[in-house]
Here is the input.
Amino acid sequence: MKRVKINLKYISEDIEGLSIASLKKAFQRYRRTTSTFRHLNVRDPLDYLDFEVNLHAELTAIEESIKRGNYFPKRPQVHFAPKKNGISRPTVTLAIEDAIVYRFCLEQMDAELIEVTRQKNIHGGVMASPVPEPEDGEYYEKWFDDWMEHNKAVHEALSTKSHIATTDISSYFDNVNLQSLIELLRRYVPEKPNLVDFLSFFVSNVKLRYGYSTTLDTGLVQDDTDCSRILAYFYLHTHDTRMIDHARKIDADYFRYVDDMNIVVRSETDAKLSLKVLTDSVRKLGLTASIEKTQINTASDAIELMKKTENEKLTTLDNKITYALNYNEELDGLKTELENTYKEMVRDGCSKENSWIKLLRRYYTLASRLQVDFLMDDIEEHILRFPDLIATGKLQRYILVNMSSDKVPPVIDTIIEYLNSEENLYPQAETMLIELLASLDLEAVPSESKKKIIEWSEGRFDNEELLLSDYAKGINALLLYKTDKSKNERIAQVYLSNQDFSEYQRKCLALVSLTVNNETLLRKVKRKTRMNVNASMKRLIGFVDGLPEYKNAKPIKNYLKNNLTTVYYGEFENEKGEDDKKRITVDSKLLRVEILNDLVAKYG
Here is the structure.
């Protein structure tokens, strides 16, 4: 019989900008803007080191699969993040290959999208492709300056007009019409038609589908690559044009930050008219204004609701703290001032208002920079009222930089009590609190606190149905190993059982199981891992097998050195007039660094 030759000819070579170099830039920027993947909604057990040590080969495989028409994105990992009052937001983490592809697509067109969308008073869109070094866990991320500029512009408009109409889009990301989005992209990025086609294929196939029900062609995933946020920012461009035209006719000012919209007007009647025009306009994009978020306020009431005075106080303090840290000035007075300002705002009733969360986020950032522990007195209330403090990582970082405080043990008690309570409703918050417990230096906490962590972790490992997600189950296996490394054999036995684990939980269990010293057990673990056809598991076993070589690779060496938590990072001009940088860190016992050290010691 004549052998049929398989045709491996490329069929999709014409995607604009596609190359190994552009994919590499997308990976590097994704890694940098997520602080080496620490800030992902679902954090990989090895922070993708098993991908990075073979980066060129992995990127080549992605490029080849795209060119041959074989590429298809994987189902994203969904994690439900807290909003408030039990309501959650479906956030996703894409497979590393898909995150790189999404970043690549947006980095090829974000300049055009930002340029066309960014008009006066239209904020919330920042390019996916900037290269500044972000601060680990810092609230003043690349979006913060844009948000502050937005608030300043609204305040200035309120000083000359009497009323403001405020609203946002109901379930905005979930209701973006993908076909309409792609048509807009074709109109505004006409010189890259093949790239737009590829992006259309991508967003249509990573959209969330619940069960097998028929769904409309709507829904942008809420990812942690910044890509959907840029597309969502751009999608309202035609709506912006209509609203700016309306505002010009009635001498008003229109503002937008992502999907939060304000129209500052001269009368209550103009406010009502503007909301009518706005709701009619967003309907043309298949969207609906949120009834519960729609308000009309006087200028004075709006300024109070936006906490203009309080934010200005914190901005002044922020500037003083930044200067003192950059130039090594005395911090004690600033620590006292920050604490007194916080207590004053609490005493004045700010903490009872809905806007308190925005101020509180700033307090956690500034208190982390100064390494002051006064917020620990109120952490129980903050966790219960504002669980998104956990989801954003602010609370975790604050605790890690204040590990020397004698208030840490009661905080550990509070965290465990919350995890055991009926208030523990949000899978993402639960997972991130387990990550926090696993990041603590357990040798630095009192024995009683360590005992409580061990008992909680063991209890959940034995009764994992009490955990809210497979991600929590996986991270808890890593926590159990950290609390007592002799537990690795117990974890390996569970891994070798015939239970139907999720991909993520399986990788966490395998990672710990590969540290066992019992040779018979280890052979079974390796054999099971090699038999797994999943790409992530194949990378894991290949990584372990290659550690004698990889241990000297730059990604590994850098990762092992980075067993730190950043207190502060800043760029400034020093006394000599030269550009300078300042980074302040504290030593940590980070979970993944510890496991990697154990693997290197065993296999390297």
